[in-house]
Amino acid sequence: MSHSIPRSDLAPEFWAKTPMEELSKAEWEALCDGCGKCCLNKLEDDDGTVELTRVACRLLNDETCLCSQYPIRHQFVPECIVLTPSSIKNHMYWLPQTCAYRLIYEGKPLEPWHPLISGDPNSVHEAGMSMIGRTVSEAEIDEDDWEDHIIEEPN
Questions:
Q1: Which of 20, 78, 111, 136 is deepest in the core (most CB within 10 A)?
Q2: Cα Rg for the chain, rounded, in angstroms?
Q3: CA distance 129 to 116
Q4: Is 152 part of any domain?
Protein backbone atom coordinates (compact mmCIF):
# COMPACT_ATOMS: atom_id res chain seq x y z
CA MET A 1 0.00 0.00 0.00
CA SER A 2 1.37 3.42 -0.94
CA HIS A 3 1.22 6.34 1.41
CA SER A 4 -0.93 9.27 0.42
CA ILE A 5 0.16 12.86 0.81
CA PRO A 6 -2.24 14.61 3.20
CA ARG A 7 -2.94 18.18 2.15
CA SER A 8 -6.13 19.07 4.03
CA ASP A 9 -6.16 21.40 7.03
CA LEU A 10 -3.19 23.42 5.80
CA ALA A 11 -3.17 27.19 5.59
CA PRO A 12 -3.71 28.56 2.07
CA GLU A 13 -0.42 29.28 0.28
CA PHE A 14 1.58 28.39 3.39
CA TRP A 15 4.65 27.79 1.19
CA ALA A 16 4.66 31.45 0.10
CA LYS A 17 4.07 32.86 3.59
CA THR A 18 6.30 30.71 5.78
CA PRO A 19 10.09 30.41 5.55
CA MET A 20 11.10 26.91 4.50
CA GLU A 21 12.86 26.20 7.80
CA GLU A 22 9.68 27.07 9.73
CA LEU A 23 7.33 24.75 7.86
CA SER A 24 5.63 22.08 9.95
CA LYS A 25 6.25 18.42 9.11
CA ALA A 26 2.78 18.25 7.52
CA GLU A 27 3.46 21.35 5.42
CA TRP A 28 6.86 20.03 4.36
CA GLU A 29 5.42 16.67 3.31
CA ALA A 30 2.54 18.40 1.44
CA LEU A 31 5.05 20.15 -0.82
CA CYS A 32 5.79 16.81 -2.49
CA ASP A 33 3.81 16.73 -5.74
CA GLY A 34 3.97 12.93 -5.99
CA CYS A 35 5.77 12.90 -9.34
CA GLY A 36 8.13 10.05 -8.42
CA LYS A 37 11.12 11.67 -10.14
CA CYS A 38 13.22 11.83 -6.99
CA CYS A 39 12.84 8.04 -6.63
CA LEU A 40 14.53 7.44 -9.97
CA ASN A 41 18.11 6.26 -9.95
CA LYS A 42 20.57 8.77 -11.31
CA LEU A 43 23.96 8.32 -12.89
CA GLU A 44 26.71 10.85 -12.25
CA ASP A 45 29.62 11.40 -14.64
CA ASP A 46 33.15 12.18 -13.50
CA ASP A 47 32.47 15.85 -14.32
CA GLY A 48 29.43 15.90 -11.98
CA THR A 49 26.76 15.74 -14.69
CA VAL A 50 23.71 13.89 -13.37
CA GLU A 51 21.68 11.78 -15.78
CA LEU A 52 18.16 10.64 -14.92
CA THR A 53 17.15 7.05 -15.59
CA ARG A 54 13.72 5.45 -15.65
CA VAL A 55 15.07 2.81 -13.26
CA ALA A 56 13.16 3.43 -10.05
CA CYS A 57 13.80 2.50 -6.46
CA ARG A 58 12.28 -0.89 -5.82
CA LEU A 59 9.84 0.71 -3.37
CA LEU A 60 8.30 3.10 -5.90
CA ASN A 61 4.81 2.06 -6.95
CA ASP A 62 4.74 2.70 -10.71
CA GLU A 63 0.93 2.99 -10.69
CA THR A 64 0.78 5.76 -8.05
CA CYS A 65 4.29 7.30 -8.08
CA LEU A 66 4.38 6.97 -4.30
CA CYS A 67 6.68 4.99 -2.06
CA SER A 68 5.10 1.69 -1.09
CA GLN A 69 6.86 1.74 2.31
CA TYR A 70 7.31 5.45 2.96
CA PRO A 71 7.12 5.49 6.79
CA ILE A 72 9.62 2.62 7.08
CA ARG A 73 11.53 3.02 3.80
CA HIS A 74 14.92 3.24 5.54
CA GLN A 75 14.50 -0.34 6.76
CA PHE A 76 14.58 -1.39 3.09
CA VAL A 77 16.63 1.42 1.51
CA PRO A 78 18.98 2.84 4.16
CA GLU A 79 20.51 5.26 1.63
CA CYS A 80 17.14 6.90 0.85
CA ILE A 81 17.71 10.62 1.31
CA VAL A 82 15.62 12.51 3.83
CA LEU A 83 15.22 15.96 2.36
CA THR A 84 14.98 18.73 4.97
CA PRO A 85 15.12 22.52 4.82
CA SER A 86 18.67 22.38 6.15
CA SER A 87 19.84 19.67 3.72
CA ILE A 88 18.16 20.84 0.51
CA LYS A 89 21.11 22.92 -0.67
CA ASN A 90 23.25 19.76 -0.66
CA HIS A 91 20.78 17.94 -2.89
CA MET A 92 19.87 20.60 -5.45
CA TYR A 93 22.03 19.01 -8.13
CA TRP A 94 19.74 15.99 -8.44
CA LEU A 95 16.33 17.41 -7.53
CA PRO A 96 13.94 17.53 -10.50
CA GLN A 97 13.57 20.94 -12.17
CA THR A 98 9.84 20.90 -11.37
CA CYS A 99 10.26 19.80 -7.73
CA ALA A 100 8.33 22.03 -5.32
CA TYR A 101 11.16 21.86 -2.77
CA ARG A 102 13.57 23.16 -5.40
CA LEU A 103 11.16 25.83 -6.64
CA ILE A 104 10.44 27.14 -3.13
CA TYR A 105 14.16 27.10 -2.26
CA GLU A 106 14.84 29.12 -5.44
CA GLY A 107 12.02 31.58 -4.63
CA LYS A 108 9.89 30.47 -7.58
CA PRO A 109 6.14 29.75 -7.62
CA LEU A 110 4.70 26.25 -7.66
CA GLU A 111 3.63 24.88 -11.02
CA PRO A 112 -0.09 25.25 -11.89
CA TRP A 113 -0.47 21.46 -11.92
CA HIS A 114 0.92 21.05 -8.38
CA PRO A 115 -1.75 19.49 -6.15
CA LEU A 116 -1.47 22.41 -3.69
CA ILE A 117 -2.45 24.77 -6.54
CA SER A 118 -4.91 22.56 -8.43
CA GLY A 119 -6.49 20.93 -5.39
CA ASP A 120 -6.26 17.59 -7.20
CA PRO A 121 -3.60 14.98 -6.28
CA ASN A 122 -3.86 13.56 -9.81
CA SER A 123 -3.09 16.84 -11.59
CA VAL A 124 0.64 16.06 -11.64
CA HIS A 125 -0.12 12.85 -13.56
CA GLU A 126 -2.72 14.44 -15.84
CA ALA A 127 -0.20 17.15 -16.77
CA GLY A 128 2.33 14.48 -17.78
CA MET A 129 4.82 15.63 -15.14
CA SER A 130 5.02 12.40 -13.20
CA MET A 131 6.69 9.07 -13.85
CA ILE A 132 3.44 7.12 -13.58
CA GLY A 133 3.61 4.10 -15.87
CA ARG A 134 7.08 5.04 -17.13
CA THR A 135 9.46 3.26 -14.77
CA VAL A 136 11.17 -0.08 -14.43
CA SER A 137 12.18 -1.39 -11.03
CA GLU A 138 15.82 -1.55 -10.05
CA ALA A 139 15.02 -5.12 -8.98
CA GLU A 140 14.55 -5.98 -12.68
CA ILE A 141 17.53 -4.15 -14.21
CA ASP A 142 21.19 -4.88 -13.56
CA GLU A 143 23.01 -1.75 -12.40
CA ASP A 144 25.48 -2.14 -15.29
CA ASP A 145 22.53 -1.65 -17.67
CA TRP A 146 21.10 1.52 -16.09
CA GLU A 147 22.88 3.59 -18.76
CA ASP A 148 20.52 2.04 -21.32
CA HIS A 149 17.60 3.64 -19.47
CA ILE A 150 18.73 7.29 -19.38
CA ILE A 151 15.79 9.66 -20.01
CA GLU A 152 15.03 13.35 -20.18
CA GLU A 153 13.05 14.71 -17.24
CA PRO A 154 9.39 15.23 -18.08
CA ASN A 155 8.88 18.99 -17.67
A1: 111
A2: 15
A3: 15
A4: no
